[in-house]
Design brief:
Chains A, B: Homodimer. Chains A, B: Pfam families: Dabb. Chains A, B: InterPro entries: Dabb (IPR013097), Dimeric_a/b-barrel (IPR011008), HS1/DABB1-like (IPR044662). Chains A, B: This is Stress-response A/B barrel domain-containing protein. Two copies of one chain form a homodimer. The first copy, chain A, is of the alpha+beta class. In chain A, 37% of the residues lie in helices and 33% in strands. Chain A contains four helices and four strands. In chain A, strands 2-3-1-4 form a four-stranded antiparallel beta sheet. The longest helix of chain A has 12 residues. At the A-B interface, strand 1, strand 2, strand 3, helix 3 and strand 4 of A face strand 1, strand 2, strand 3, helix 3 and strand 4 of B.
Chain lengths: 97, 97
């Protein structure tokens, strides 16, 4: 199994509608990208200060399947249209399980 | 289910032995903290530039169980003894699955 994690933080003036658009856009991806085996996304619970605002955990059978997801046009469209306009910070790791 | 994610990056002069000590220390935690339901850790695969160096994904039955893990003395000892000496950056999210 191969896992991709990305943690995102939003600009201070990001609206609830903009944040909801990110979640709605990402939720389309399992239907559009059959290589996605498991996809667990969501906003930070607000327990700890200094956290990022949103998490994406995506599991694949292989590194090659992750690359299909990474470069998929539907995914790239969500990044360009919903994520980038409100993005303040990003941290990522891919690792083998 | 309640998930904790932390992505860590290491200082440039961190040695392989120091990085291995982090992994060995964290691997003790499922045996020491019964609240941990799933624990999947590992170094970044090196595919993408700008990534953090190490990922920790910990799943719990509840937010309360995550707090037991967060504040557990065995966990805090790994942070103080193995992680902090080589820590360059940290990004975290907790979220509900």
């Amino acid at each position: 199994m191969f896992r991709h994690i990305v943690l995102l933080s939003w600009v201070e003036d990001a609206t609830e509608a903009q944040k909801a658009a990110v979640e709605a856009g990402l939720k389309q991806l399992p239907g559009a990208i059959p290589e996605l085996r498991r996809y667990e996304i969501g906003p930070d619970a607000g327990i700890n200060h200094g956290n990022h605002d949103f998490a994406v955990v995506a599991d694949f059978d292989s590194e090659e399947d992750y690359l299909v997801y990474r470069d998929h046009p539907t995914h790239q469209a969500v990044i360009a249209d919903a994520i980038k306009p409100i993005l303040a910070g990003r941290a990522a790791v891919q690792y083998r399980l």
